[in-house]
Amino acid sequence: MTVSQSIFRKAILDPTQAVPEGLRDGANAPAGKRFSVYRNNVVVSLTEALQVAFPLVYKLLGGETFSRLAAIYVRQHPPPSPLMMHYGAALPAFLEQFEPLAHIGYLPDCARLDLALRASYHATDAPALAPERLQADPERLVQMNFALAPATRVLRSQWPLHDIWRLNFEADAPKPRAVAQDVLITRPAFDPHPHLLPDGAATWLEHLSTGKTFGAAHEATRAAIPDFDLAQALTLALQTGALTDTTKDT
Amino acid sequence: MLDNAPRFDHLPAAPGVGYKPQHFTELRAEPGPVAWIEVHAENYMGDGGRPLAQLRALSEQFALSVHGVGLSIGGEGALDADHLARLKKLVGWARPASFSEHLAWSTHGAEFLNDLLPLPYTTATLTRVADHIDQVQSTLGCQMLLENPSSYLAFAESTWAETDFLAELVKRTGCGLLLDVNNVFISATNLGLSAQGYIDAFPLHAVGEIHVGGHDEDADDHGAPLLIDSHGKPVVDPVWALLDITLAKCGPRPVLVEWDTDVPDWPTLRSEAERAARALAPAA
Q1: CATH 3.40.50.300 applies to domain B15-283
Q2: Measured between CB atoms, which of B157, B192, B218 is closest to A26?
Q3: Among A58, B66, B85, B277, which is disulfide-ready with B33 (CB 3.0 to 4.6 Å)?
Q4: Average pLDDT, integer, range A132-149
């Protein structure tokens, strides 16, 4: 009686399946409960990995609901690679379709925020743009290029995503306001942190990241968002280390 | 078959610990008898940030063992070429003294199941695992160590004893072995075999590293003891005794204390390393 890995895998992920024949205890009796050790290891270890990876979603749902969600998710979406640091990439899209939690409309964006923080944590190190670089003469400044640092992420949400994060992780945080919020994630040293982006700043950062010069990015942003405040956005970007310098020195 | 002759002087024949980031500062300041550390390869395959910075700092102070948990060497399919490339990159910059993996499978198709799953000991399995070990060793350009599993059940189709199976892999591939004596104790208890008999039959000449660790106790459907390899508790006395027996037979080897869940504070883990140092003293 051969137990293929395909049979083994199916029985692990589906608890209604019988324990494969051909698995034995030490006395050559059917393995029975011993097989559950593997079932349990797989589901529990993947659930724990999600719990660590999605602290905001976990905090919002609580342990019991999160575990019920994870028990379904891990069976439908086992990790696509051994890099557990990337596990859960499909969770936001899964939550978009997940009826039992559809009443928490902002949950998928919270999962995106958790993912972005983790991606930032593992991103390539890069020196932040030094403010002195902006002290070039204005004609040269508008021609300069600045890219987002590898650890920088920008999330646009129709929900008060930054307020929701603060309420769950900061003491004395105010109640979330009924507004859409864009969030900037940066990692100055090793610990990523989310910041609230002012109006238009997400658009401006996207223009910079697609290769527009400092001048062109400002113009394009102003065209779409007339009251975009460049000084405010630039100050935040410099203070948080969101940018790196990609200008070739001449 | 790897051309390089097996060398077991890669890691010091001294205590090591499985590295946990929460111990970073204390481990470096007060290592006690700890001469080397082991890290799980997959945790250091990101692009940057704290994990890689810590590993660089630690590798200046300690000999390093890279221990893979995701290669699925026993998998029915081909090895994951992307994962093998990531391992090559890690081994290339971290320059570990040793690389090890498990006699197990964890990937099926495009799914990684995040557990070390068991294999039937058949000649077909042997051929496949030997091919995979050859591929790993030729890709990494070094000998690897293969770890004996902890077993909760057996396959009716098995035709090889685990110790013979491992000895044959050593013969065919030139790999070394990582002897986990906690796994020996668990498997022997769970399958009603003699742990000391297992050590007696084990190809000890090929052992490049030894693991000790803690386990949980459960019972099967018939009330028989079922030990679970949890790495979440102190090493129990019978496992220390098994280490003593092993070291008396094979002489001093690198001995690693594994503690991966419910990780204790540094003094507690270091005291386990001190216990391992005492076990190594008479063997020296």
Answers
A1: no
A2: B192
A3: B277
A4: 87
